[in-house]
């Protein structure tokens, strides 16, 4: 139709291309729990954009803050001059920082995205080790199914093959340990097996020597690998092993940060405190690109040297602490706090769980997992064509007015945290019908 832009000259990543071809609908506007496409169809957002629009779409408070800040000062070179908006935002973030009162990670470093947050955390970890006289510790251990963005740092420590396929030289010098519970039968409470997977870290320490290892990075709950939940005790065991060998622990909370699990951070949910936490996405409700790394006082102090607190690590982005992004972030935090969104997932998690598990027994469903306001419905792969069944479910849902996310044969759900019961029912109803229709 005439309002369709030409896609000919626009290069999208391959997944999006594939989805465009089968379901060529373009999203034009967004409000609350819904997108509207260019033909005027409403699409319920089952994925909070891309795990990021936690407070729902089109928040006026964020829009107003952005407009005001653009008119006041559009840009400032933050790491050269500074400006009050970024400091204000950092101070407000420090108050809700991961780790609770006892061991808050309240030192904040701003970036422009999740991938930049990961790069930043990896560099901080190595710089920290060097600063405390452990300069031989330059290796990072990631996880077999880890996803840490698409920067070189992230793909080096990430485990998802797709991200490294055309960079065979990248993973050669890196190490991964396993967390590949594809189906863990999770229902109420966390599963009670698989903790020994953490001991794989011991194996790598023995293999390479603790004196070569700076840090281990994990997603507390794997998102992009298909919503893999940590076995009970797994993260505690990782923490203990890391401590034993002087290795820093990094939680990548780009997805889990800002209320997704029903606590401000997964760090709080699991009660395991890492040394560094990476965030992005929900930091600004997805409205303006921004990321932040949270560090412990211990890490921060080690990096600051000399009488004037000089830092040897030269690092910072043009958009670090961007004033407009900071303004969006402050408005987002205010919404989270006023509406109780950082703990909302906890109060609706049972409803969410019951609704999702009502899909049990539908064709092809082999596992259902949930945690906070995250859900996964795993499908049996089609013979010889893995991923195609879930993809067909994606197309069917989209045509019926529901946006989901598929990764391999797993349907991943992560609706905005403002979701109400009737919208949960709608998600399950459309998805259930799609599961019945798709062969
Ligand atoms: N880490 C994790 C755990 C993520 O899920 C993502 C993005 N999905 C990233 C890092 C990268 O974030 P970005 O796409 O903003 O660079």
Automatic annotation (TrEMBL):
Coiled-coil segments on the chain, per record: none
Record's keyword annotation contains Glycoprotein: no
Stored InterPro entries: Aminotrans_3, Aminotrans_3_PPA_site, PyrdxlP-dep_Trfase, PyrdxlP-dep_Trfase_major, PyrdxlP-dep_Trfase_small
Gene Ontology BP annotations: biotin biosynthetic process
EC number(s) recorded for this UniProt protein: 2.6.1.18
GO terms of molecular function: adenosylmethionine-8-amino-7-oxononanoate transaminase activity; beta-alanine:pyruvate transaminase activity; pyridoxal phosphate binding
UniProt keyword list: Aminotransferase, Pyridoxal phosphate, Pyruvate, Transferase
Cofactor names: pyridoxal 5'-phosphate
Homology family: Belongs to the class-III pyridoxal-phosphate-dependent aminotransferase family.
Protein name: Beta-alanine--pyruvate transaminase
Organism: Rhizobium tibeticum
Lineage: Bacteria, Pseudomonadati, Pseudomonadota, Alphaproteobacteria, Hyphomicrobiales
